[in-house]
Specification:
single chain, UDP N-Acetylglucosamine Acyltransferase, domain 1, 5-stranded parallel β-sheet, 3 helices, 19 strands
């Protein structure tokens, strides 16, 4: 909607976004300058590539760059991780193709959790109310047994409690309750998650 009925003085009083004033100098990404540059090239040329299908090599690379990784972790091709030193992964976690962990700050993934294809964990955002479009960062925690569905998004500061499920192409902007299935944008609870023993 255009402000056609406003006077010139009123129009001048309306603030607009000024990206030329953006300043994130307060932010500390962690790691040394060398490790950040080195990881950028390793991530782009090796880790994200589809010619390296071996999880063991990828896990070794993550550990080399400071990530805390448990046993039995599976990392599929095309996974993009911003900063390994901000990453904590438990045991027997599955990370599917093209998952993006944009961890400007801590991301913790509990044991036996699954991130399906194209899921995104986003720890950074911007203050759209600020003229300077300030950077906002907040950690993400996935507790044990969480399932983040294909092409779903977990927003900054969200905790997905034990065995919660975020359905495919959904957006979690608030904490998810345990043993609950969520769907939609914004995601809302749709049913309880009941885990049963397999029939033999």
């Amino acid at each position: 909607m255009k402000n056609t009925n406003l006077s010139l003085s009123e129009k001048k009083s309306i603030l607009t976004t000024r990206l030329d004033k953006y300043d994130n100098s307060w932010y500390r990404p962690g790691g040394s300058s060398f490790s950040r540059v080195f990881w950028y090239y390793i991530n782009a040329s090796v880790f994200k590539s589809y010619w390296l299908p071996f999880s063991s090599v990828k896990v070794a690379l993550l550990r080399l760059f400071g990530a805390s990784i448990g046993s039995g972790v599976v990392v599929k091709p095309g996974v993009n991780i911003k900063y390994p030193w901000h990453l904590e992964i438990g045991d027997h976690v599955w990370i599917g193709e093209a998952v993006w962990i944009d961890n400007l700050t801590t991301v913790k993934i509990g044991s036996h959790s699954c991130l399906s294809q194209g899921a995104m964990l986003l720890t950074g955002n911007h203050d759209y109310k600020a003229e300077t479009f300030d950077l906002i960062v907040a950690p993400i925690i996935l507790e044990n047994g969480v399932w983040i569905g294909a092409k779903s998004l977990v927003c900054p500061g969200v905790t997905c409690l034990s065995h919660s499920v975020l359905s495919a192409q959904s957006v979690a902007s608030k904490n998810l309750d345990p043993y609950t299935v969520y769907a939609g944008n914004p995601a809302i609870p749709v049913r309880k998650r009941t885990i049963e023993n397999p029939v033999k």
